[in-house]
């Protein structure tokens, strides 16, 4: 019989609260125990137990330990955010907790903690914006605030993720065609800004993520030069594929080759004679789609497999 992290952690929490430790020590112990459930959960129950432990720490704080109270709130929000089935009610609770914590933390000299909260708040706002329960512009503001601390020199991973999230937020904004062009341009700019500093040697995973997503943005960029943008997108996918492969990162690899297939199907074989069509590129696109379909099917990614299957049906060589 396998035990959840929670079984031993709940017992330890009860012992901590009953011990002769000071109130501050009890709060710190509860937060540390909650982090144990939160950072390596085996089941959603572990995350809910983490929320409970953070809340017990929060309650013990009263008004005597404002910073510990804020940290307990941040932990609670993070655990709520991580629950796989988190609906909008849970995300709204997480948003409220992050915002409450920020009002306290901004007054303290803890810039990295503040930036982490702003980054996570941005994610929550971005998710809520998809349900019309928050503004995507507030999500972008939270990410941009975090970038003041998470610079490429000191925090390259966070820097890359923030620029990626900002770009995706811009792409998700439902606007008129004129503004859509502007938002697409800002998204491309955000990816390109990050890629000035995130390189293939030092930050492989982030580099591949940014190149893949920049390729997607270029592929769908409203423009009077679609072939040029598609060629740039193709180059981005090829850069991502210097990192992504079917052995180490199969799902990321499948996503990229499916994206590459899509762009290949829209590029003429001979750029000087586009009227001759693109049977060679379509053949390569079909091969990429078939490989992506095989990987998605093998990993039970039903939705992606269906999308690729449909794309295959539409290819006519």
TrEMBL record:
It comes from the Bacteria. This is MalT-like TPR region domain-containing protein. It comes from Dulcicalothrix desertica PCC 7102.
């Amino acid at each position: 019989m396998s035990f959840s992290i929670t079984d031993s952690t709940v017992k330890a929490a009860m012992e901590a609260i009953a011990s002769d430790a000071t109130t501050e020590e009890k709060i710190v112990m509860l937060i540390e125990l909650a982090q144990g459930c939160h950072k390596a959960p085996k089941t959603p129950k572990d995350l809910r137990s983490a929320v409970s432990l953070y809340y017990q720490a929060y309650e013990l704080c009263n008004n005597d330990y404002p910073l510990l109270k804020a940290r307990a709130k941040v932990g609670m929000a993070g655990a709520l955010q991580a629950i796989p089935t988190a609906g909008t009610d849970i995300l709204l609770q997480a948003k409220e907790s992050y915002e409450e914590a920020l009002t306290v933390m901004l007054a303290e000299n803890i810039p990295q903690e503040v930036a982490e909260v702003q980054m996570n708040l941005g994610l929550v706002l971005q998710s809520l914006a998809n349900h019309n329960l928050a503004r995507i512009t507030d999500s972008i503001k939270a990410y941009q605030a975090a970038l003041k601390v998470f610079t490429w020199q000191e925090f390259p991973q966070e820097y890359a993720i923030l620029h990626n999230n900002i770009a995706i937020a811009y792409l998700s904004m439902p606007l008129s065609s004129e503004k859509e062009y502007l938002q697409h341009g800002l998204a491309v700019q955000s990816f390109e800004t990050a890629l000035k500093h995130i390189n293939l040697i030092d930050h492989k995973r982030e580099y591949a993520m940014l190149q893949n997503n920049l390729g997607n943005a270029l592929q769908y960029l409203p423009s009077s030069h679609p072939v040029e943008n598609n060629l740039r997108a193709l180059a981005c996918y090829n850069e991502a594929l210097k990192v992504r492969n079917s052995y180490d990162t199969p799902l990321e690899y499948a996503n990229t080759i499916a994206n590459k297939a899509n762009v290949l199907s829209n590029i003429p074989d001979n750029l000087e004679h586009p009227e001759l069509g693109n049977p060679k590129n379509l053949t390569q696109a079909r091969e990429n789609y078939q490989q992506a379909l095989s990987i998605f099917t093998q990993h039970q990614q039903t939705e992606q497999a269906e999308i690729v299957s449909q794309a295959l049906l539409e290819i006519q060589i």
